[in-house]
Model the fold of this input.
Amino acid sequence: MRARCAGRWALVFGSLLYAFFTFGWPPLAARGLLAPPPHYIHLMFVTLLLTVAFALAASRLMAVPRAAADAA
Done:
């Protein structure tokens, strides 16, 4: 059950990261606050890697302890 919850959080994280890369970074770069964004496909690769890393970390943090899982 918790693994699915971690997956849902990863979906939210990936969506927000994509939204920032698409809609947040270009306006900030236009104002000189950030460097110009890399190419779209590079940002999609970064989004994939960070979302998978987030999902793995969240799954590890939300894991049910082994003794509790055996009792259920």
